[in-house]
Amino acid sequence: MAGPLEQFTIHNVTDPLFTIGNHPIAVTNSAIFMLGAVAISSVLLLAGAGKGAMIPGRVQALAEIFYEFIGNMVRDNVGSAGRKYFPFIFSLFIFTLFGNVLGLMPYGFTFTSHIAVTFFMAASIFLAVTLIGLFKHGLRFFSLFFPHGAPLFTAPILIPIELVSYLSRPISLSVRLFANMTVGHVLLKVLAGFVVALGIFGAVPLAVLVAITALELLVAVLQAYIFTILSCIYLNDALHLH
Amino acid sequence: MTEDERKADELDRRLRDVRQAYNTGVGKPSGSTGGSAGGGGEKLGVGMRIAVEMVAGVVAGAFLGLMADRWLGTKPWLLIVGFILGCGAAFLNVYRVAQAEEKRGKAERDAVSKK
Predict the structure, then answer these.
(1) Range scoring the smallest mean pLDDT among A81-90, A91-100, A140-149, A159-168
(2) Residue B1: which domain range?
(3) C-beta atoms of A167 and B60 within 8 A
(4) Which of A30, A161, A238, B115 is the most exposed place for a label (fewest CB within 10 A)?
């Protein structure tokens, strides 16, 4: 029987297409699921946006719910200055959401359960947000690292702590998503192992498994939500500086 | 033609109203899901946030210290300093999450008691 961690292995689906340095690059199962997430969400949203009917059908209503959900999130957390960044935030949410949920499908692969993927996303957000803040505020951006109104002699302690706190953002952002997805899938696999091993008494872990699957669906949606809302909060910090 | 113009004016007016309502938050649909993602799930999310925040600060501080040590050749010292700073940053982050949560909870309670 497959071990609980085997579901996370990445294997090449095609022969290596080209090499970067000495590393051959091929289409992997992870890449296929990423492309799948992009394709499915694109088809769904384009179908929803295509008609523009006054009374939305099912697909259009779904697309509108997504749009409104992220629109409200950006407005509540960033304000009207964040309207410019709505397309990015929206794509981020849809990509993470579809990655998380597609991973729960049978035979699915969760690309968000790889720290390489989540850390790349978090690091690009972190870099982009920092650059946006620097361009918008210039050197005044660094006042982010000194709390407003603190006595000046505390600066030698406060500034390094604030700096480390700021630099820990991409780590916490990526680890949260990666850990949640990995732990959920390992848990499901371990419980599924009990179902087989216990024979007739396997009905008990099977019942638990059904409940955990529902919980995992909640976690998948929730983590996509948290990942996006935290990006909004970071963007707000950079745009408005306290 | 005049019929079309009248319609265009009407549309303009309605667009303006909607836009104003959007910016002031008046016409926001009451069932909108802007802020929350359901009762129990939200608490779970906050718990996870705090747990990860505790680790991330320490990891960031220690990593920075380790890298600075390797760069400057001051073997254990900057790692120790970085670790301590990381603990401070982790506490700060957890405190901020808790503070934001409390503020949000208070606003929600006020909204409920007003009703």
Answers:
(1) A140-149
(2) 1-31
(3) yes
(4) B115
Residues B24 and B45 in one domain: no
Q: What is the pLDDT of residue B27?
A: 42
Does pLDDT of A213 surpass 70?
yes
Residue B30: predicted pLDDT: 41
Average pLDDT of the segment spanning A14-35: 86
Q: Is the pLDDT of residue B32 over 70?
A: no
Listed by start position, the domains of chain A span: 6-240
Model pLDDT for residues B51-66, shown as the tens digit of each residue? 899 999 999 999 999 9
Q: What pTM was estimated for this model as a whole?
A: 0.82
> Which of helix, strand or coil describes residue B115?
coil
Cross-chain CB nearest to A226 (options B29, B49, B92): B49
Number of domains in chain B: 2
What is the C-alpha R_g of chain B? Answer: 25
Residue/partner pairs of B62-69 with CB below 8 Å, 24 or more apart: B62/B86, B64/A164, B64/A167
pLDDT averaged over chain B?
80
Question: Are B50 and B20 in the same domain?
Answer: no
Asked if residue B62 and residue B24 are part of one domain, the reply reads no
- The answer to whether residues B69 and B103 belong to one domain is yes
A interface with B, Cβ–Cβ below 8 Å? 65, 68-69, 72-73, 75-76, 80, 157, 160-162, 164-165, 167-169, 171-172, 175-176, 179-180, 218-219, 221-223, 225-226
Q: How many angstroms separate the CA atoms of A138 and A107, rounded? A: 49
Q: Are residues B56 and B110 in the same domain?
A: yes
Pair B80, B65: CB distance under 8 Å: yes
Min Cα distance B26 → chain A (Å) is: 13
Whether residues A221 and B86 touch (CB distance < 8 A) is answered with no
Q: Which of B28, B46, B52 to mutate to test the interface with A (most CBs of A within 10 A)?
A: B52
Q: Specify whether the CB–CB gap between A38 and A47 falls below 8 A.
A: no
